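Hi Q.,

Before the meeting this afternoon, I wanted you to have the adenosine monophosphate prediction in hand. No need to reply - just skim if you have a minute. The sequence and ligand are here:
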Amino acid sequence: MDRKRWYICGITALFIVFAGIIFYLNNTELPITNTLKGTEEFSAEIIAMDTYITMTAYGEYAESALTDAQEKIRKLEQLWSVTDERSDIYSINHGNGQAVEVSDETADLLAFALDMAAKTDGALEPTIYPVMTAWGFTAGQNRIPSEDELQYLLQNVDYKKVHLNGSEITLPVGMQLDFGAVGKGYAGDVVAALLKEEGVTSALLSLGGNIQAVGSKPDGTDWRLGLRDPFSEGLFGIVSVSDMAVVTSGNYERYFVGEDGVKYGHIIDPSTGYPAENGLASVSVIAAEGKLCDALATALFVMGLEKATDFWRQYQNFDMILVTEEAEIYLTEGIKERFSLDSSHSSVSVNVITDG
Ligand code: AMP
Ligand code: MG
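Predicted structure with the ligand bound:
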């Protein structure tokens, strides 16, 4: 009799414990996080600015900061979309020669792009858009324009004719802007600053492969970032950085194969109107500011190895890793210690570019 009573008591106790656990789980909000050695990790993924954006941030402020970061990216996208009729870029490109008032961010980015266009002697050319359209890159229906068509369009490609006065922009009729080469880098800077302001000390942002590292990894060590091999799906190397941007440009990213069997890439040499073919397969730029990295990765790709080397020797406010069409690797001395070859490329020789 006693045994039976104990048995019933045991079953009842178990039932109460289970009911308690179920009640607890149903009434406790489980945060969508992974706990990493005591540091909370939050991630957000969005498609914006024509690309796939992923953001991972750590610590107690990460979740709310990422919510704000997503909102900020959406706002920047609304300003710089070439197709959205409400965007600043759309208004500028349809201004019919009249001055157009734009947001501070648009004016700031344009001022930067014009400055970089001047420094790179027009290798970065923010008014290249009509040529991009002629090649069909903007509508996704690629074609090979005739030499005459390109020469005609190039008459309206000249950053020197863009007039920026405070927040007023005036373009000559027929000229059109495109922030494709600098917008993602600039957005990376804006988001990194926002995360830091909101107390985040460790985060990694990837805007279509443009990497912006906020601080170091939560354990205090550098982020190890893979560099894509332009000739395969794998990596050719790894760079270890903290609080830096790493941006790569290459014609392997977006291209089409014409009816003539030739590959045509999306980075245009503004001096010819044709996709840049100056012997490089990819250019990665490493510096604190994402916008500088983004502008330079595109411009140095257009320049080719020799001019890019001269440019680096003149400015030296960034590091670069170049892969040539012959799969040779060149890098500047400042990044040498932070670079290592991927095991798949261990036999490749690395050429170091020095100061002179
Ligand atoms: P990125 O991926 O940063 O190298 O930028 C390439 C994008 O910038 C292209 O898809 C075009 O929208 C635009 N673009 C192409 N060639 C140039 C150029 N020489 N200068 C500035 N923007 C360019
Ligand atoms: Mg760029």
